[in-house]
Amino acid sequence: MNLIKLNIIGLSYSQFKSGAYALFLEEDNGLKKLSIVIGACEAQAIAIGLDQTIKSPRPLTHDLFVSIAEKNDLMIDKIIIHKLEKGIFFSSIKFINKNNQESFTIDARTSDAIAIAIKFKAPIYTYKKILDAANNEFKEESEKIEISTEESKDISTKESKEELEKKLTIAIRNEDYELAAKIRDQIKKIND
Fold this sequence. Notes:
- With about 190 residues, the protein is an alpha+beta fold.
- It is about 45% helix and about 30% strand.
- It is built from 6 helices and 7 strands, in the order E-E-E-H-H-E-E-E-H-E-H-H-H.
């Protein structure tokens, strides 16, 4: 199977899962996108890795991993997001020993693999079937939310914060900024 190169395009607070973040990747030609829900610690590591101006006073876990790999003459060839099961992405990291050019692969959580890839400036790949499956899953979830959004353009005051956050994500993706602003205002009322 042919690998499809992915680029990181953004990181934001997840509208679907409270206390989590969403990492956004897209294929090189920008046609298909991948959204991965990650934890706060991994989001912090990825954000720090992407922003070259931020330096941690002490090594973070991913920095420690890089130091160990470098001390053992290992480099990362690539990250492959190779499986999607029940909304969870599975990844692997392919290493190359600089001394003898031998390679090996280890399993990793996708968020950790991407944080490490950033540190090593290694490329991130996936397969077409993973990209298609992820886009289909997102489309199905979006359609469910769109139906409920279309049924009532008025924002119900009885909706939970989580329901409103889902609708907000869909409104933004559909570029319906007027509806997004109304939903945002309702979320603010709940937070106050």
